């Protein structure tokens, strides 16, 4: 009996880590694609995720839209914001020192977060309660699965399949991969590097926007600084899997989700975030190219 | 010359304090300014002169602050306070050494993210320790910081760091910033100097933390989050990456701006953000670039006049 209980609890933790891991994976994809193509840690990415959560909130609360139109609207607006960020803040610095671009990214992130705080005030807001199917929960053995968890998983799988198709089969996807391998060579082959970079930002930001709405539905509370910590952790996920690699980001996202849930479930929940950052430092020191990455030799 | 200048500033400050022109509000602004100067100058040594991008300066500051608070709460006397500041700074330097040794092998943005992670870990540890009273933080830290200690610590930090930069060690650090591989090929032990700069920077950040704890008499882990590190970075970047006087000027400038924007804290952060982006796009080297506004200018001016007179 007791073993059954522990087994059930274990399975429950696994399912919880899949839900949270999906969200990290969606954010990490944006980090990794942008890093792959312009070698920039896009700190503003986490703010775009926050923006997505707020757009979903306003769409559901004030315009009474359902879940699907809200998430599509959030993805669309985040896509536009992502492209604008790149055009306004990063493009003028395309050939500047990387440290300058990184500082700019931090600046953009602060601008969005505190600008949002100025507009909507710092208080925590809660998503409207879900109705119909989304309010249900199912008991399977000893564990409880909510419809929202299923929704997160379903949306994540759909988005990842779409992403895979876009990156692997379309011309733009091919251009993305070419630019991330060698920008100059790609340019010589007649690839429009600027529009490819814009496209990458568009996709990454749309995914972050979707993740924002999902988090709002799942955790029910949002605030203007909600992006900071998940953003950092999603970045850890991207680094863990091997930054610049799309499968790496997905793997890393689920791994970080699992670490977090299991440390909180079986260890001390207060040290949850510390463990994630400790993993980051260890990965950076031991295998900076990440789990799936190949380490390149430094050229003089 | 610089000692005379420091004495002069101290005397003017002391006069203002004694005559009561500097009320409590202005003095707290001045304290924040001096603490920011120490933080910015020490971060500039790491980021500006040695070229190692650190996003974890608030972590070192928090170590200095907590250690100083814990010691001076047990020995509430001036020697206790000084012991606290010194021990705090040494503790921060020690952690800097432990953290710097492995992470400084990383380059550029990887180092930035590793130091950021380190600062978060330090914050979470302070959040969970019993002795630091968790999220509620420490209250009632004895207040010993007055203008004398403040100016003493600020000027000695600036002078010590600028002397370090002009020494052979400092030049080795600058050469690593310019080109690490080239520096190594002429026999400069890059890791050693990177760690040295990191440890010195952490030491002074610890001093700043101790002063902070003692003046504001309460500490909470949330005070030392990511945004504190960014605040310091903004000062360094605005003043010029690799210019100590630039850091001082930028700290003064930002202190003035935030005094005016006191009522709108969000707006202040938005302004910081816009300033960062605009500076990076328009003038990526910062206000001063790597130039120094030095007292030698005055000296040179004086010499010329003497020659002209004779």
Descriptive terms for the model:
heterodimer, A: about 300 residues, mainly alpha, two-stranded antiparallel ribbon, B: about 300 residues, ABC transporter involved in vitamin B12 uptake, BtuC, two-stranded antiparallel sheet
Structure explained in plain terms:
The complex is a heterodimer of chains A (300) and B (310). Chain A has a domain at 16-223. Chain A contains eleven helices and four strands, in the order ααααβββααααβααα. Chain A has helices at 2-38, 44-61, 67-90, 98-120, 147-169, 171-181, 183-188, 193-219, 228-241, 246-266, 272-286, and strands at residues 125-126, 137-140, 143-146, 221-222. In chain A, α9 runs parallel beside α11 and α10 (246-266) packs across α11 (272-286). In chain A, 50% of the residues are buried. Chain B is an all-alpha fold and 310 residues long. Chain B has one domain (23-309): Orthogonal Bundle (ABC transporter involved in vitamin B12 uptake, BtuC), CATH 1.10.3470. Chain B has a two-stranded antiparallel sheet with strand order 1-2. Chain B is globular, with a radius of gyration of 19 Å. The model of chain B has no long low-confidence stretch (mean pLDDT 86). Chains A and B meet through α4, α9 and α11 of A and α5, α10 and α12 of B.
List the helices and strands and how they pair.
The complex is a heterodimer of chains A (300) and B (310).
Chain A (H helix, E strand, L loop, with lengths): L1 H37 L5 H18 L5 H24 L7 H23 L4 E2 L10 E4 L2 E4 H23 L1 H11 L1 H6 L4 H27 L1 E2 L5 H14 L4 H21 L5 H15 L14
Antiparallel strand pairs in A: 1-4, 2-3
Helix pairs in contact in A: 1-5, 1-8, 1-9, 1-10, 2-3, 2-4, 2-8, 2-9, 3-8, 5-6, 5-8, 6-8, 9-10, 9-11, 10-11
Chain B lengths: L1 H18 L4 H26 L7 H18 L3 H26 L4 H21 L9 E2 L7 H20 L1 H11 L1 H6 L4 H27 L1 E2 L6 H14 L4 H17 L4 H18 L13 H14 L1
Antiparallel strand pairs in B: 1-2
Helix pairs in contact in B: 1-6, 2-6, 2-9, 2-10, 2-11, 3-4, 3-5, 3-9, 4-9, 6-7, 6-9, 7-9, 10-11, 10-12
């Amino acid at each position: 009996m007791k073993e059954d209980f522990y087994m059930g609890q274990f399975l429950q933790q696994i399912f919880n880590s899949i839900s949270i891991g999906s969200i990290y994976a969606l954010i990490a994809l944006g980090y990794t694609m942008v890093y792959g193509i312009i070698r920039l840690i896009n700190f503003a990415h986490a703010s775009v995720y926050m923006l997505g959560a707020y757009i979903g909130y306003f769409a559901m609360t004030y315009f009474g839209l359902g879940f699907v139109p809200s998430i599509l609207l959030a993805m669309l607006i985040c896509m536009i914001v992502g492209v604008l960020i790149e055009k306004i803040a990063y493009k003028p610095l395309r050939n500047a020192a990387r440290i300058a671009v990184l500082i700019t990214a931090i600046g953009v992130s602060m601008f969005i977060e505190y600008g949002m705080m100025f507009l909507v005030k710092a208080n925590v807001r809660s998503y409207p309660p879900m109705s119909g199917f989304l309010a249900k929960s199912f008991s399977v053995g000893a564990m409880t699965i909510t419809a929202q968890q299923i929704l997160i998983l379903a949306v994540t799988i759909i988005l990842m399949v779409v992403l895979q198709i876009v990156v692997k089969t379309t011309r733009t996807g091919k251009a993305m991969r070419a630019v991330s391998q060698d920008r100059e060579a790609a340019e010589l082959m007649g690839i429009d590097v600027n529009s490819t970079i814009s496209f990458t930002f568009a996709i990454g930001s749309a995914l972050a926007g979707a993740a924002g709405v999902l988090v709002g539905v799942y955790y029910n509370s949002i605030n203007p600084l909600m992006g900071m910590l998940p953003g950092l952790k999603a970045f850890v996920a991207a680094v863990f899997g091997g930054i610049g690699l799309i499968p790496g980001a997905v793997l890393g996202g689920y791994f970080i989700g699992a670490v977090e849930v299991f440390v909180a479930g079986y260890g001390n929940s207060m040290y949850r975030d510390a463990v994630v950052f400790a993993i980051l430092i260890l990965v950076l020191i031991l295998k900076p190219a990440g789990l799936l990455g190949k380490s390149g030799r430094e050229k003089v | 010359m610089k000692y005379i200048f420091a004495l002069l500033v101290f005397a003017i400050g002391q006069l203002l304090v004694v005559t009561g022109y500097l009320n409590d509000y202005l003095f707290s602004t001045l304290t924040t300014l001096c603490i920011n100067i120490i933080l910015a100058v020490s971060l500039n040594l790491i980021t500006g002169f040695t070229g190692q991008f650190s996003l974890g300066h608030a972590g070192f500051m928090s170590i200095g602050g907590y250690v100083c608070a814990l010691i001076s709460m047990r020995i509430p006397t001036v020697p206790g306070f000084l012991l606290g500041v010194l021990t705090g700074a040494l503790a921060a330097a020690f952690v800097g050494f432990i953290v710097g040794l492995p992470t400084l092998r990383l380059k550029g943005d990887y180092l930035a993210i590793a130091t950021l992670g380190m600062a978060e870990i330090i914050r979470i540890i302070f959040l969970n320790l019993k002795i630091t009273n968790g999220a509620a933080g420490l209250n009632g830290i004895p207040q010993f910081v007055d203008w004398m200690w403040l100016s003493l610590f600020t000027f000695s930090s600036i002078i010590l760091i600028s002397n370090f930069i002009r020494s052979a060690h400092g030049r080795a650090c600058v050469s690593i910033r310019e080109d690490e591989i080239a520096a190594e090929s002429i026999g400069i032990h890059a890791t050693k100097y990177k760690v040295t700069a990191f440890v010195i920077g952490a030491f002074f950040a610890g001093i700043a933390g101790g002063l902070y704890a003692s003046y504001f008499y309460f500490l909470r882990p949330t005070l030392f989050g990511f945004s504190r590190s960014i605040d310091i970075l903004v000062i360094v970047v605005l003043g010029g990456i690799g210019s100590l006087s630039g850091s001082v000027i930028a700290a003064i400038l930002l202190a003035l701006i935030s005094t005016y924007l006191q009522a709108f804290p969000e707006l202040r952060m938005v302004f910081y953000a816009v300033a960062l982006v605009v500076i990076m796009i328009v003038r990526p080297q910062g206000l001063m670039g790597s130039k120094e506004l030095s007292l030698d200018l005055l000296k040179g001016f004086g010499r010329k006049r003497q020659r002209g007179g004779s």
